[in-house]
């Protein structure tokens, strides 16, 4: 795959043939031995990840991709090679990789290669950069690096290539439309239209006309034929925002559209064929509305084939600094570059953000009007923002756990400094505080008791268990804890 000398591959002829075959694949790919060393990189990988630096042949994959001095699973990350070694099956994970352009979200799929005796002798790793999200403030689209954000983004990447309906669940201001667009852009319908339907505030008659269109004379004021949004979305994605607000009478027609893929314009008799991928979103508790008779159960099960819970901003405080920088870079104003003073950042990280990312953006837009020298300081923020939490940094503010149902929470204060949690074994400077008894992280009951008694931030909790914060999220999920730390 390259003129540079390679480490001697195991089972030479088979692996050499594989390397030659992958050279012209359009997807970036590397070949690894069982000791995590990179044997070869195809042309697509060299173009995308090899700019401005030597090819990492013979180097360890975890060092090249993450800058670690040990395998990912020993540094608190999910390691696809470790999983593939244990199971002998492919594994897939979303990682933040170091690239020549900075950190980036990369969808990694790893497959084991066996010899004639069935022994795994090498691995092929396919890497796909996520274009709809960025781990850098200079990027476009979704911004984030926190475990909760990465988990939601990984779910988007999983479902995007299918035709399943997607239901985005989250509080107002969590970026549901951006996540819906990310599903669209990662799907095979990316070249088609992305059509947004705002379901809130529409009457039954207006909703039907907007969605299905109408014929001339269908009702008073219908002076001509109108194309509906379902027809506009042909070949693309139809995004039904605030799905919980759809009038009950209209839910029947919406169900028929989804089940049969057909519809009729208002005032028309012709049955028309629909062709779209459905993404719906709501901040409403739909299961509760079903129980109350305010939302059809059959429609709920139709749209909830693949639910994704979007984390509120208070569950991803590590992203506040990144989001703030991104908004200030993207925003319009007289200053070419805006800066955020440390006292202002501390206040932002201490705030509960009931309005989530939308509230953060609005606060920064307001603050810029007062920052004549281009530096946003604490006095430029709304009075009282973040003060109560800053005064009592260990106060038990509910922080929803990523992947849990809306409303699930665990009473741990987020890190006021907003620093990412790391494994103390990887970063000796990480604050440790009290150490949990050995084995606590692997015992669900012991873990539950430790969380209930722990008094500190999420970062300190992870450090006390010897875990990174991302691994802490995963351990809680594996232990069956819904995010409520109870004794």
Apparent shape = globular
Oligomer: single chain
What does the radius of gyration come to? Answer: 25 Å
Poorly predicted runs: 1-8, 389-433, 482-487
Quick check: average pLDDT? Answer: 81
Give a structural overview:
By secondary structure, the protein is of the alpha/beta class. It contains 18 helices and 18 strands. It has helices spanning 12-22, 43-49, 61-66, 80-87, 147-160, 176-185, 204-212, 229-232, 248-260, 286-291, 297-303, 320-330, 342-350, 356-370, 387-391, 444-453, 458-464, 469-478; strands spanning 29-32, 38-41, 91-99, 102-114, 120-129, 133-134, 142-143, 166-169, 194-198, 213-214, 226-227, 236-241, 262-263, 272-273, 276-282, 306-309, 339-340, 375-376. A five-stranded antiparallel β-sheet has the order 2-1-5-4-3, sandwiched between helices. Strands 9-12-15-8-16 form a five-stranded parallel β-sheet. It has a two-stranded parallel ribbon with strand order 6-7. Strand 1 (29-32) and strand 2 (38-41) form a beta hairpin. Helix 12 crosses helix 14. The longest helix has 15 residues, at 356-370. The model is unreliable at 1-8, 389-433 and 482-487 (pLDDT under 50).
């Amino acid at each position: 795959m390259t003129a540079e000398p390679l480490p001697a591959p195991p089972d030479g002829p088979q692996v050499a043939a594989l390397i030659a075959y992958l050279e012209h694949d359009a997807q970036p790919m590397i070949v690894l031995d069982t000791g995590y060393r990179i044997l070869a990189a195809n042309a697509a990988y060299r173009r995308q990840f090899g700019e401005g630096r030597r090819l990492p042949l013979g180097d360890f994959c975890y060092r090249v991709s993450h800058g670690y001095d040990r395998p990912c699973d020993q540094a608190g990350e999910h390691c696809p090679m470790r999983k593939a070694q244990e199971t002998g099956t492919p594994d897939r994970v979303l990682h933040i990789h170091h690239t020549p352009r900075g950190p980036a979200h990369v969808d990694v799929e790893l497959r084991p290669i066996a010899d004639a005796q069935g022994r795994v002798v090498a691995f092929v790793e396919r890497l796909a950069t996520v274009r709809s999200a960025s781990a850098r403030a200079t990027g476009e689209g979704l911004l984030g690096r926190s475990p909760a954000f990465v988990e939601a983004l990984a779910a988007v990447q999983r479902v995007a290539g299918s035709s399943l309906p997607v239901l985005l669940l989250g509080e107002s201001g969590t970026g549901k439309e951006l996540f819906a667009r990310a599903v669209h852009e990662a799907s095979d319908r990316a070249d088609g239209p992305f059509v947004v339907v705002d379901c809130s505030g529409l009457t039954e008659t207006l909703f039907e006309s907007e969605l299905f269109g109408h014929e001339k004379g269908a009702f008073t004021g219908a002076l001509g034929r109108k194309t509906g949004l379902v027809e506009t979305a042909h070949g693309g994605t139809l995004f039904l925002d605030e799905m919980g607000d759809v009038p009950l009478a209209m839910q029947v027609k919406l169900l028929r559209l989804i089940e049969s893929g057909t519809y009729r314009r208002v005032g028309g008799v012709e049955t028309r064929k629909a062709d779209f991928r459905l993404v719906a979103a709501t901040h409403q508790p739909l299961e509760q509305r079903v129980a109350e008779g305010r939302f059809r159960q059959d429609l709920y099960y139709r749209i909830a084939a693949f639910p994704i819970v979007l984390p509120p901003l208070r569950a991803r405080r590590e992203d506040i600094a990144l989001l703030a920088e991104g908004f200030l870079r993207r925003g319009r104003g007289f200053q070419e570059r805006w800066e955020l003073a440390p006292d202002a950042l501390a206040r932002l990280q201490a705030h509960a953000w009931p309005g989530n990312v939308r509230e953060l953006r609005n606060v920064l837009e307001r603050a810029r009007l007062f920052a004549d020298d281009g530096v946003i300081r604490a006095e430029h923020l709304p009075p009282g923002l973040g003060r109560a939490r800053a005064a009592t940094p260990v106060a038990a503010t509910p922080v929803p756990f990523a992947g849990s149902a809306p409303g699930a929470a665990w009473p741990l204060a987020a890190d006021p400094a907003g620093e990412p949690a790391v494994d103390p074994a990887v970063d000796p400077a990480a604050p440790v505080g009290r150490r949990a008894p050995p084995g606590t992280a692997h015992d669900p009951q012991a873990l539950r008791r430790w969380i209930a008694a722990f008094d500190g931030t999420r970062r300190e909790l992870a450090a006390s268990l010897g875990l990174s914060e991302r691994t802490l999220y995963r351990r809680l999920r594996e232990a069956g804890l819904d995010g409520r730390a109870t004794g």
